[in-house]
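Task: encode each sequence below as structure tokens.

Item 1
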Amino acid sequence: MIHIPNSGFPAGTIIVAAGLQPRYYEFQMALEGLQVPAGTKLHIERSCDVAQNFNKGIKAMTGDWAWFMGDDHSFDSLALMRLLGHLVPVVVPIAPCKVAPWMPCLMHGPANPEADGFWHEDMLLYDWDELSGAGLMALSRGDFIGQAGMLVRKPVLDRIGYPWFKAGQLDKGRLQEDMMFCHELQEMGYTVWVDQDMVLDHYVHMGVTARRHQGRWVPALKSGKQVVVLPEAKPAFMPNMPIPPPGKSPVCWTRLPDESAYAGSVENTPS
């Protein structure tokens, strides 16, 4: 972490719930470059009990806020400063789900909560189009969002009290500590603000395969039980290449542009 003096923000604690073994270098690299207010503390809890990892982190926290994170994410170096700048009690970025088709980790609440309760198995995930606005969006009361990247001010946590994260409350066979935390925040009258301009990268092991699509083989990704074909994924074609020998493809593999170059090209594209 890079401690920034005179940032204009108070110090707090980054609380990471991790497994027994480190998972992704991308998380470590993002954490190393993260700008934080001077005096900010990093607290990592390692066990298979996600809810208790966060609870122990809150018990040990110092400062004015907690930023909840898992070690399967990466983020921009200014991510934390941006969230602090919103000056709201609770704010969270968007994170994609790990399973194809990788929808946002936000869920609509029941259409009829009086009859169905505040949670049931068939609730729908948000579509990306619903989160394509700009700035902060107030999460609708009764909807749910995961805690990845959620920034919560200490007075909010003081009101909730131990245990802040509770597993098995919605479905006794499942954790869902994040959904229950979101529900309790709303029940206490807090607005959960979603930063529509900030997306956390979410890492997961995935299979690379191929499937026939419209009569030809194309690359595909295997995510859980689902397969997503990528018919437009092709190497760069060099039109001035010599005619290839028989049986060889007239293509040339080139290095893809890095993310910053891609972002620049998108920003410069006429609307």
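Item 2
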Amino acid sequence: MTKKCLIEIYGVRLILKYDKTIVLEDVLSTLSKKCNLKTQLSGVTYYDLMIELVNWNKEEHFDRLGTKKDPNNIRIPIKKGRDVGILIEVAVLDYKLRKNGEDYSKIFNKEIYKQINNKKRTQKNEIKHSVHGVLLEINGTGTLIMGKSGVGKSEVGLELIAKGNKFIADDKVIIKRKYNDKKLRGYCTEIPYYMEVRGLGIVNIEKIYGTEYIKSYANIDIIVEIVEDSVENETINILEEIFPIHKLEICAIKNLATEIEELVKMYRKWEW
């Protein structure tokens, strides 16, 4: 059975559809101070967005590029250990940008085609490598989040950004070592500050959160991998540097973003 409620957040009216197995209070916990909630829909004459919350199924398709015909009808997959309220908030902020004529899904796709036709060469005096993941700077510590496709790296990264941490890159992280540098640095691609989020499509972090939430590069200090089952920690070799990989298992009880922040705190204590 599907339930519905009306939410108004930042002046945007949206209908939220959700399965009876989803606890609405948990979903809206981070939005409680930012929105007005109505469970009775009688008399509702208009709305701006329709968001459907769907339990995650890896066999089911969810929009990743924002190219669907009706961008105001959104399906967001619900996963364990995530703050879905953050995704709803970003969907609303992205809607407001589109309403003002700033459709960053279309802008991103145009830039992709330009880059395909105009590839830049690697600069001299540096060695370059790329990895699949999300790079953030959390309390001054460069944190690379890795994991299989669909495991939820971008959603966790988005939650950490909403907490005030800095975003560097999503999906493809460029790692470089200049000959005089001891540490490896991670950079975004030539199309910076975009994030691909299942259900929402392509969002521009700089436009949604502001310039204080982005950075052009960060050192590679910690590597975290999100996994579906409990496994032992491993190491990874990147440009002749050996890094331990901290494995974090997806769990309904624990919030992954909070776990990553705790890892960073432990790293900083050890470093000092």
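Check on item 2: The first strand starts at residue 2 and ends at 9. Helices lie at 24-27, 84-99, 104-117, 153-162, 205-209, 256-271.
End of task.
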